[in-house]
Design a protein that fits this description.
This protein is mostly helical and 221 residues long. The chain has 8 helices and no strands. Helix 5 runs antiparallel to helix 7 and helix 7 packs antiparallel against helix 8. The two termini are 23 Å apart.
């Protein structure tokens, strides 16, 4: 099947997930006279911090998802289910974000557990995305196949975020704030990360398959 319908459905899920993140940003109104607006905004910082990291993460997933699927020559049934698995974790991100932000300022074990759950959702998302990418390479779904060496390197660099999220889960039980910082760094990594283009595949300078081509399936992780 063609990927247009799959991408349209996925885009809708991404849009809903990223919109749900904003529901927890509101603070109490002027009828609550116990605290000033500045105090309310300041005490609400966990929600703003979690929102920023989660928004960035979902946005990057959407960008990479679009880049990856536009370079698929074909879609099989397994890819459909792997994409559903990815979307399952994407939809869980607003829940994890809200839960994490609500418990972060309270401290104690609940804050650590909420952080671990939050990072666990990111790990599930990253792992499912990595498997989807691996499956596409393994079963030659890309429009222009990678060499075996380039494919191995691409899978490693594409999935390296899994290591960061696993570390974040462990650090969550030591410092929730540090764990959040790790997930932010992983997001930043995927903004700039470019898995290797077909560096080992000869291409003519005017060849649309040139490694500098922004449409390269491995040009954006």
């Amino acid at each position: 099947m063609e990927s247009d319908r799959l991408e349209a459905f996925s885009d809708g899920v991404f849009a809903v997930a990223i919109t749900l993140l904003a529901l927890n940003l509101a603070v109490s109104g002027p009828e609550d006279k116990a605290f000033s607006l500045a105090h309310k905004l300041g005490s609400h910082w966990p929600f703003f911090a979690a929102y920023a990291v989660s928004f960035l993460t979902i946005g990057i997933i959407w960008v990479n998802h679009h880049t990856l699927f536009k370079n698929f020559a074909k879609i099989d049934r397994t890819l459909l289910f792997l994409n559903l698995l990815l979307l399952f974790f994407v939809v869980c991100i607003p829940f994890g974000t809200s839960n994490f932000a609500a418990y972060l300022s309270g401290g104690h074990f609940d804050a650590k557990l909420a952080t671990a759950i939050y990072q666990g959702i990111f790990e599930g998302m990253s792992l499912s995305f990595g498997i989807l990418f691996w499956w596409a390479i393994r079963h030659e779904h890309l429009k222009i196949a990678l060499t075996p060496a380039a494919a191995r390197t691409a899978v490693i660099r594409f999935g390296i975020g899994n290591v960061g999220y696993i570390a974040a889960v462990g650090i969550a039980f030591v410092s929730p704030a540090a764990s959040l910082a790790i997930s932010a760094l992983v997001a930043i990594y995927y903004i700039f990360e470019q898995t290797p283009a077909r560096s080992s595949v000869p291409a003519a300078p005017d060849d649309p398959g040139n490694p500098a081509d922004p449409g390269d399936p491995a040009a954006t992780s």
